[in-house]
Amino acid sequence: MKQLKNWDNKTWLASTKYISSFHKFLKSKTKFNKNTKILDIGCGRANIISFLHKKYQFKEKPIGVDIIKNDNTKKNIIFKKVDAIEFLKKNDKCFDIILVKQTIHFFSKRKIITLINLCKKRLNKRGTFFIFSLKRKNNQIPSFQLMKKKLNQSLRKDEQILSLIKKNLKKFENKKFKYKATVEKKDYIKMIKKRYISCLITLSKKEILEGINEIEIKFNSLIKFEDILECVIYRR
Ligand SMILES: C[S@@+](CC[C@H](N)C(=O)[O-])C[C@H]1O[C@@H](n2cnc3c(N)ncnc32)[C@H](O)[C@@H]1O
Hints:
With 236 residues, the protein is an alpha/beta fold. The protein is built from 7 helices and 7 strands, in the order H-E-H-E-E-H-E-H-E-H-E-H-H-E.
């Protein structure tokens, strides 16, 4: 599978406003203190756990695992370049918070079950396990036609993934994280060129360029939309 390299690089997802708002959401669902131990699976540049560590100065640095190490990965956390399942199998350390944000769809169904079970095992008593994925119905991600088609295919797969997760977790809470995103059209076009989202990874250069032409016509110079994530929360 082709890899996602330009996910949150200089986009609203890396902005302090987005991360602060994400932190507010987490804080409304779990408690943080100096002793909190955090694992972020598929952490990307580790912007989220880096922010949390700056804020709470945890006794143990949060751990972020990802199969890709981006150049500007945050330095104030422990980063492991490794497959998440491999990491969880080899380490018996337990965590108070395990985050899987916009990453679960990278795993096969069989691996998702393994991942979920390992995360449950590695969760401390009263720990919280969060799984975030894109909102599936009426998703507002600014798209061109082919991108929308691919996105919808991926969201249909997410639907199946989610029922698999819920079946496995048995007890869970469903919540939504909503963020009002604003992005300049010229910056959004750069993001598309860099294939910032997984539904763009397999498109050809020609398809991307045609898509950009569509975006130029379809959107105003400032693009506004609501970035909504569905969240499944499991507590031990
Ligand atoms: C869409 S990004 C999300 C990054 C981050 N969680 C966020 O929300 O900003 C998905 C990340 O999952 C990582 N990933 C994919 N498969 C993985 C695996 N098997 N083990 C660890 N990380 C993986 C990708 O490399 C990518 O950085």
